[in-house]
Amino acid sequence: MQEKGNISIHTENIFPIIKKFLYSDHEIFLRELVSNAVDASQKLKQLSGMGEYKGELGELRVEVSFDEKAKTITISDKGIGLTADEIKKYINQIAFSGATEFVEKYKDKGDEQQIIGHFGLGFYSAFMVADKVEINSLSYQEGAESANWICDGSTEFEIKPGDRTERGTDIILHINEESAEFLNQARLQGILTKYCKFLPVEIKFGEKDESVKDGEDKDGKPQYKTVKKDNIINNPSPLWTKSPSELKDEDYLAFYRELYPFSEEPLFWIHLNVDYPFNLTGVLYFPKVKNELELQKNKIQLYSRQVFITDEVKDVVPEFLMLLHGVIDSPDIPLNVSRSFLQADGAVKKINTYITKKVADKLSELFKKDRKVFEDKWDNIGLFVKYGMLSDEKFYDKAKDFALLQNTDGECFTFDEYKEKVSVLQKDKDDNLVYLYATDPAKQHAFIESVKNKTYDVLKFDGPLDSHFIGTLEHKLEKTQLKRVDAETVDKLIDKDEKVESVLSDKEKETAKTLFEKAIDDKNSTVNVESLAADDMPVIVTMPEFMRRMKDMQKQGGGGMMMMGDMPDQYTVAVNANHPLIAKILKTENNEQLARQAYDLALLSQGLLEGAALTSFIKRSVAISAE
């Protein structure tokens, strides 16, 4: 039998569309053709299991090979095969999906989830890289004859008897000049590893050298030799396809190393395994991220029935969990016709919600199971938790019971625990609870010590998201304010309306104010002479809370200072009227220089003195010491 004819399509312009526009990346052709070969193998296995195929299955392996001289790439399988009539039905009618029809026919008899093919267009991706494509196939059906189909990329085809003697199909691509890059061992290996690494049928690509033991020498030392072994590029039974009950911690860690060979071991993981109301499997790992916002959004891989689709999963995975690593596999996630991009719909939203809930449940479980271990991991976990609480209202509601607040002494508290800890001492005159915090405990040490002298507690908020998290806490916690320790003098941070008498007269206070204004000579600094405790610092330089927050947000890319334009930093200089040094300065002749020295000491204690100003301060200190 020999026949010529026309491929049944609506327009002759469809081939240029397939070649140039359907698939965003030409390397996808290999994923599609290997997936089709895997489908053919899975179909045969399913028919055998149902008793509709009586023959021996043999080794159901897909093989990819290439011939650089002949400029061909061949994808071979030992699957279900095709008759000439089936080729005409499934190949010559573009977008008629054989997999779809097969699943519909046998949906009540087997596991249709193993059939990958979806649209019937995958085969035609071959024409992105080939001038001519051949199909050489022999069906599993008893008495079937081999068939050979040839097409040069036009709408014309030729079908004739083939020469294949074993069940299965060869797809032979005659590579065009523009795609010669694919006639390369490393290039093909890379594509297969990327897209086919976890396909459910073994994929062979040539051979590889392997060192094996070959006896021992006279001293008993093992000897090795190099042998050729089949190069199997995939793991047909990846961890996420197995039941959690049959896996151990080491299995999860080994799989993580397989996915990310150069990464530190993860903190813990979540095994996703749900079949209603959608099908979803996978494993998500919590990596060690410390206090850096490592938004590497290509760490979660999306698969559809073990075929790699993409590592851009922002619609499937909540934004705050993009920091996670791992694999998600779902046949229910809608893809575009080229299986390269997600199409957002209700199913995606449900999966997104489910993943959020699973993560919250896992964190809650860890917190309840071993509080100490949870606290030890908080430096890593905290970033995920805070990100989630900032971006997802439902996650906030769950996380508020296990989220931790850490003080500058390293102690950890839940929200309720911390409220109870400070509720007696840290209330202001209006009955507002005031949480004090530091963003850089080393630089703010003097302020921390000052508030600790009042037996107040100080929280540590030095993470990349904390400037935003502080605002969220103020919004969520009833009658609670958060103030940075260096935003005011201690008495103003928590204003209890308690008056401290001044040892200076009103006239002396005015003299001190004028003296420090002249010594500082900075129009962006406001000098106030205040009645503080005698053991407080003689001079305290603060920046208003709102400006502190804007600056903190700007550092983290929050754009806070964008609203303020180029407004210069504004400082308040509190001169402590009750400190003995201030009284001494007022009685000294060279008091302007001493006032400047006291001011610079305050800047130095806060890490605000640097560059030329620091050099000038050192020179003045040396000069004063020499007098």
UniProtKB/TrEMBL annotation:
Keywords: ATP-binding, Chaperone, Nucleotide-binding. SUPFAM superfamilies: ATPase domain of HSP90 chaperone/DNA topoisomerase II/histidine kinase (SSF55874), HSP90 C-terminal domain (SSF110942), Ribosomal protein S5 domain 2-like (SSF54211). InterPro entries: HATPase_C_sf, HATPase_dom, Heat_shock_protein_90_CS, HSP90_C, Hsp90_fam, Hsp90_N, Ribosomal_Su5_D2-typ_SF. It comes from the Bacteria. Residues 25-165 form the Histidine kinase/HSP90-like ATPase domain. Pfam families: HATPase_c_3, HSP90. Belongs to the heat shock protein 90 family. PANTHER family: HEAT SHOCK PROTEIN 90 FAMILY MEMBER. This is Molecular chaperone HtpG. It comes from Reichenbachiella carrageenanivorans.
